[in-house]
Every structure is written in C-alpha cells, then in structure tokens.
Amino acid sequence: MSRKKDHHFALPAVVFGRERIADRVTTLAARISRDYASRELTIISILKGSVVFCADLMRHLAVPCVLDFMAVASYEGQRSRGVVKIVSDLRESPVGKHLLVVEDIVDTGYTLQYLKDNLQTRAPASIRTCVLLDKPSARKVPIRADYVGFTAPDRFLVGYGLDYREHYRHLPYIGAVKGTH
Length: 181
Ligand code: IMP
Ligand code: MG
Prior knowledge:
It is a single chain. This protein has 181 residues and is an alpha/beta fold. The chain contains three helices and nine strands; from the N terminus they run E-H-E-H-E-E-E-H-E-E-E-E. The chain has a six-stranded mixed sheet with strand order 4-3-2-5-6-7, sandwiched between helices. Helix 2 links the parallel strand 2 and strand 3. Helix 1 packs across helix 2. The longest helix has 19 residues. It starts with 12 loop residues before the first strand and ends in a 5-residue tail after the last strand. 31% of the residues are buried.
C-alpha cells in the first residue's frame, strides 16, 4: 500500500484534549438539565459536525428528550460563503416544542442565525442554541449561543466531529491542522 499521501493526514496538534472536552460536556449537560427542569427537550443536531458532541451531551442529560437532525450547507473548504441552505430537514414537527439546536462551531454566525430564524417561523414553544466551540474573531452577524463549550482560537479546528474536507471527524480530541493557519 502506498504511503505517499500520508503526510496529508498527519495528526493535528491538540487544542482541546479529550478529558477537557468530557468535563465541559458534563458541565453543559448539567446546566441544560437544570434550565429545562422537567420540560421535554427536542434536540436538533446539525449534521454532520455536531454528531459526536451531541451523542456525548445527550447521554448526560437528566431531562426527557427527543432527537432530530437537520443538515445545512454554508461552507466550502475553509471559506464561508454566507449563504445557508437546508440540505436535509427535520423528520418531526417542531410545533410547540422546546428546541435546542446543537452545533459544532459558530464562526461567522451565518449558519446559527439562519437556523434560529428558520425554526422560529415554525411555531416552536422555545428555541435555544448550544455550540461546542465559539470563534468570536470570525463573527459577521452578532449572534451568541445560549450554551458554549469553549471559546476557540482563530485557527481551523478539526476532530470530535469537525472536519477539514470531510476528514478528521473521528479524532477523539479537537486539534488544529498544520498549514490551515
Ligand atoms: P458559520 O456559518 O461561519 O458560523 O460556520 C459554521 C460552520 O462552518 C460550522 O458548522 C462548521 O461546519 C464550519 N466551520 C467553521 N469553522 C470551522 C473550523 O474551524 N473547523 C471546522 N469547521 C468549521
Ligand atoms: Mg458543520
């Protein structure tokens, strides 16, 4: 088997390690459980980036919850186009539900703002947002998630669900790829 291309997949340097992530996810889940008390939560995991985070987060929730997915496209490689469209919509009706949008990272903010605006038109009981990573340095629209895992440095991050051209999602930690600044 050729090893020619292996350098493209060199392991990224650790930015947030797995234990640090696990601690933070537990804390976020406890806060969410407290805030929602006995209300039923509808978790909307945004594909694909949030699946690893969401899977860990929901296993620490102490409130009843239902899971749904949405897929949006807004990003080509590393450059946001500022255009968001729904690629795959919810399977369940969000009407009258307490929605918690779970996303991997908020960068320019276009995606999260679009999702909030779009879901708001569908008569939910409430909408909140939970992001693993917040990159405030890249923000184009003034949106702040209700629950934030970590404030991220201005670097391109991968792992724990986040990808660089579909690679690295499986890494158990969050790292920065060399050469992506
Ligand atoms: P926004 O619309 O610019 O806020 O971008 C949100 C989306 O861009 C996220 O759901 C990610 O898919 C992607 N994204 C932004 N920054 C990064 C990064 O550092 N690593 C991986 N994906 C990123
Ligand atoms: Mg994404």
